Amino acid sequence: MQQGQPSRTALGAARARAFHQTEDAPHIFADPLAVTIAGAATAAVASTERPDDDGIPAEARLFLAMRHRFAEDALAKAAGGIRQVVVLGAGLDTFAYRNPYPDLTVFEVDHPATQAWKRDRLADAGIAVPAELRFVPVDFETGTLAEGLAAVGFSRTEPAFFLWLGVVQYLTPDAVEATLRYIVEHGAAAQVVFDYSEPPSALPAPHQPMVEALAQVMERLGEPWLSLFTVDDITAKLQTIGFDEIEDLDWRQMIARYAPDSPAADLVGGHVLRAAHTGHVEVLAP
Ligand SMILES: C[S@@+](CC[C@H](N)C(=O)[O-])C[C@H]1O[C@@H](n2cnc3c(N)ncnc32)[C@H](O)[C@@H]1O
Question: Closest Cα to atom 22, ligand 1: which residue?
């Protein structure tokens, strides 16, 4: 991320979700606030810097729609047993503002510059901030999630669900590992849904140029991909850290589940994954 600047990829992701609401078929992920927040965010960017809608490849929009659908379906299944949801690297995600579950506190964690920018955009858009939402400004590279969440009343002894979409790629491996450890060391059942990309070198040769091109776009936006994983690497890491349940969908499995008739090109390399630790490991001091 560029020093002191809000995330540009957060804007891109929000615009992709907005575009998906009105233009894409099949319609996979319903987000009634996506168009409003993306509109306010786009208006706040200098007109010379506004991204072009056509610049968001259809496959990337489809991937975003499928990852959010997977995540919110998993959350819906868990919702009866949890009262805490943490949106890590929230960007312009709108779950907190359309949260349908009574008694669920949402903690939005993000880089301080992105979070401050989002709060201004929420005000521009007239989107009300629910009383049960807590903002947690944290830089995953320099700050600690534990301190940030403890300061706003997050309980380490009650079950929690973590959404971590579109973030892992942009963090250093150390920051990814520290966050996973924080989740697994939760003192009650915890689940996390995140997406990751495989390194181009692990993909079949015909798919490498598209993934390399996407990586170059992120680099130009000042948010290079820093952590990519093969399936074996991420599975081993999660198991070593202590997760005891892993559900990992690759592009083909996502397409089969959500868009079986889609003509979209095969975006090999993108995965969405749910990992849980169902037992109590150790209650750590915040
Ligand atoms: C591609 S956006 C995804 C935003 C949102 N989760 C979504 O799906 O639209 C990446 C997000 O990661 C956040 N991020 C990147 N590096 C970060 C860091 N070091 N600490 C905290 N957040 C970070 C950015 O602020 C941004 O909100």
Answer: 111
pLDDT along the chain (286 residues), means of 10: 85 94 92 96 80 71 96 96 97 98 96 97 98 96 94 97 98 97 95 96 87 87 94 97 95 94 78 88 46
Average pLDDT, the chain: 91
- Beta-bridged to residue 278, according to DSSP, are none
Kindly state the tokens that stand for 174: 């150390």
Site to probe by mutation for ligand 1, drawn from 1, 85, 142 as the one with most ligand atoms within 8 Å of Cβ, is 1
175-232, pLDDT tens digit by residue? 999 999 999 999 999 999 999 999 999 988 988 888 888 888 889 889 999 999 999 9
Query: What is the pLDDT at residue 280?
Result: 54
Percent of the chain that is helix, strand, coil (3-state, to 5): 45, 15, 40
Q: For ligand 1, which residues put their CB under 6 angstroms from it?
A: 1, 7, 9-10, 13-14, 89-93, 110-111, 114, 139-141, 165-167, 170-171
Would you say the pTM of this structure is higher than 0.90?
yes
Report how far ligand 1's centroid is from the alpha carbon of 173 (Å).
Answer: 15
* Residues 6 or more apart in contact with residue 193 via CB below 8 angstroms: 70, 71, 74, 75, 162, 163, 164, 165, 272, 273, 274
**Domains with residue ranges and CATH for the chain:** 8-277 (3.40.50.150)
Q: 100-111 pLDDT, tens per residue?
A: 999 999 999 999
**Residues 69 and 258: beta-carbon distance below 8 Å:** yes
